Amino acid sequence: MLWLGIFILCSFYAFSAISFRKHRLPKKQREYQRIRRILGKEKKSDEEERLAKELFQTEYKGTDYILPVFFVTLFCALGFWVLFSGKNPLILSGISVEGLNNLDLGKISYKRLSLVAIGMAILGSYVWSIQYIVRRLINLDLIPGAYYSVGTRIIFATFVSLILHHFIQSMDMKRKKELIDLLPVLAFFTGIFPQRAMQYIQEKLLIFSKIGKRAHELPLDMIEGITLFSKVRLSEVGIDNAQNLAEANLEELILKTPFNPRLLIDWIAQAKLYVTVKDDINALRKAGIRTAFDLQVAKNNNGLQAIADISKIEEQHLSAIYNVFSQDPDIIALNEVREKLSNL
């Protein structure tokens, strides 16, 4: 019964891949062709149609799903075995802090606590992955690499959770008692938010708090509308910061991500502005300037002085930024596509 239950839980990944290939991929192909027609890039020859078809066959090749699905299924199966196996399963029995004192850990063994951290982190990652895979399935975006992303996240979360357990053990006894009691919960949420757990550990260790000056990181968090899911999805196509987003190819993003073209254009235009002004971005947003397009509209309406007064940025500097944007071929092309989409 144990292995049957594990098989049922882990079969989710294989069934999601089969469902996408059989039912959702044809719809994505039709949607992609529709967008290309809107962009004025409809196919004009049989050769171009063949190349477009081969592009989808390469990106979503059936055999490419086998290894990543097996990869993530294997790690989930191992995690569930840790949680459910034995006469006293970790997930049902939990842990007890009875007997803890300043000399020992009582009845709780260090090894069992480590297994709790590992198992609950994998369970948290599994719960997160269900939402992640289902969302991508609905959005016609379930490429083979999605399963590698889930698998690597499970591995990452597992080790972060284990390190968190070791870190808790190094604390003073009072604080240790409190956190050990919460270890299953902490490990579970580490599986869902591994980066936050890693950040917590880094903040507590003074050796990582003193970092010298470095270039502006331009995080995607500064782009309005980008969520945790969006960040994970964009990172899969090599976009880890606003600089990458500002230089991204729109058509490639339409093909390889599930996001609406209008939304992608807005994000890229925001990134163009953010990369240019950096720390002044919040001041410009207070003045109603979110994207590179907004600044161009303001200039055309002779509104730069009003923006300068609100944002406390010199009008001459804003005018120089406008001149850069007005000659940027990428922004000109994006604006043309945006106007086409707005006229639909």
Task: Provide keyphrases for this structure.
flat; 344 residues; mainly alpha; 71% helix
Characterization of this structure:
- The chain has 344 residues and is mainly alpha-helical.
- The protein has 2 domains: 2-208, no CATH class; 220-342, no CATH class.
- 71% of the residues lie in helices and 0% in strands.
- It is built from 18 helices and no strands.
- The longest helix is centred in the N-terminal third of the chain and has 37 residues, at 2-38.
- Mean pLDDT is 83; it is low at 97-107.
Radius of gyration, in Å, reads 25 Å
Distance between the termini: 56 Å
- H/E element string? HHHHHHHHHHHHHHHHHH
Mass-distribution shape: flat
Secondary structure category: mainly alpha
Number of helices: 18
Number of domains: 2
In helices, the fraction of residues equals over 70%
Topology:
Blueprint: H1 2-38, H2 46-59, H3 66-84, H4 90-93, H5 110-138, H6 145-169, H7 173-181, H8 183-192, H9 194-204, H10 228-235, H11 242-246, H12 250-256, H13 261-277, H14 281-286, H15 292-300, H16 304-311, H17 315-326, H18 329-342
Question: Brief overview, please?
Answer:
It is built from 18 helices and no strands.
